[in-house]
Hints:
It contains 19 helices and 22 strands. It is an alpha+beta fold.
Amino acid sequence: MLLRNDLLHYTHPSARTVRILWIAPEQSHAYVFDVAARSAEVELVRLSALHADLRAGHARVLPADPYLMVVSQELLPPKHLQLRARAWEIVEPLVALEPGIYEARLRGQLIAQATATHGVSHPTIYRYLRRYWQRGQTPNALLPDYSNSGGRGKVRQASAGVKRGRPRKNGAGDGPGLNADEEIRRTFRVAIARYAAGHARFSRLGAYQQMLADFFIERRIDADSGRVLAMPGTRAAELPSFGQFNYWLDHDDDRPPEVARRRAAADAPHATAASAGSHVMPAAEAFDGAAIAGRPGAAFHLDVVRAEVQLVSRADRHQAIGQPLVYVAVDAFSRMVAGVYIGIGIGAASWQHAMLALAHCGADKQRYSQRFGRGIEAGLWPSRHLPETLHASAALSSGSQRDTLLNNFNLRCTAVADDAPDEWRTVLAKRFRLLAPDDAGAACRLDGVLDLDQFTRIVIDAILYHNNRQPLHHAGGATPRALWEWGVEHRGGGLKTYPEQLLRCSLMPAAQATVTGDGILLFDSTYTCARAIDERWFERARQRGQWSVRVAYDPADMDVIYLPDPNAPMQFHACHMTDSSSAHRHLAAVEIARLPHPASTAPAALSASLRSTTHAYASYAN
């Protein structure tokens, strides 16, 4: 049921928002006003037409009114109260004459009379009416717009040597401070996300203090050893203030879900507390994508960028492991990020790592996000499909797995120029400077602090924001998720799904491991599995010598490797790391490679109780 003052947001035939000013008692017609209009023109529409637009999905009722002026009266300056009273004295008798005030000819006559009575101009009265109808038809709608002065909401550009904003109130002797340029704002965003992920309750002051301790000290990375060398001590003039930190935290709308605006917390503390840990985002908006060509899953674009940040090892936080490469698979129709993989490498991007991003397209995103501490509803990242065609970025040169994609999954792979959808880059670039895959970049403030898990969590946050809240200009402001869900419902007949474990094991990089008397050796780590125990591989290796076997592995997670079964196609044996390699658990291959190697190690005995780890792909459930 539609009510007076409801806001209807249209996406078809063009994007606009109208307010219902008045509804006829017999529910036959209504007067509506475009809240973005620069004039005071009102439209007469049949109420049945509005209901038809809602049923067709061309419009929706906004749950909240962003134009409504609700302020604390005691906080208003006397000058504002006087101006509001004067405007309301003029407007009140006009808007009381419903529905006559909505008819153009009669409205002109009424305004001419008000002009003579109150001694104000026609444009002034029309401006009052426009404000009144735009902002919720209350007297507060007539408050002056002084808050717009000074370019509120616009980011001023910094000039070299000139500090923006007012001088510091406290610590003025420490210098003028620094400007919060894009690099500093990236640091704010990363520090906020890092603190939010590591603490059950978010504290602005705690996040600020940790940021200063982590990112605002002198630090360099030794080029030969990769050791992170920190030298505490920074001049106060080079530190951002807590006020700057708070300002930009409130300014950005893509904060982690644990972080609430101060204003929202003050207005509704119980609601904020209830939602702060829920880790959910707004539901996808109703959308009609009939005018957009294509369908979900017809083609994915496989792209890669390097983030300009040196990560540290999870085993030794004083050891740098390199800059991460972010591999992303994006649906060409909806622009939704369907899969991602974080690799660590030097030089050109790896096709094998890119295939793990493709494998992730068919993964359970809810479980994946939870692994990095981000609990989400399954609907926030709904894609679990492979495309029909894969367009690889020019930075990726396809290898032998092109035939694997075609033969196993009927997936055609083509190389295209760098014209893939890049809306996701905008969100990620607000956290890290993005480079070409073969660009080494330069030292930056974020170097030597984040590990692979923390970086991945920040990337997940950026992807969830892009998928659920980033408006697409070509789709009338709809989000990628809204466009994807509309496409799945109306054009999703060609989507393909495969078991997650089958995709991973088929598309993982492969390497030659060595069967020794102590276990299956790969990258200085030893593994065991039920098949090796049952067939007495390790006893045979001690008696007859070592031999090689082919295994599949994930370079970012070496806890488990997979041994293909030559007698059973598409069946793999999961080989788990032995106790003798327990120091390597939860590490990537590059982290294991940078661990110190003792001169001699005595291999520990294999675990006496081994559970069966033979998995057919169909049995993969956890």
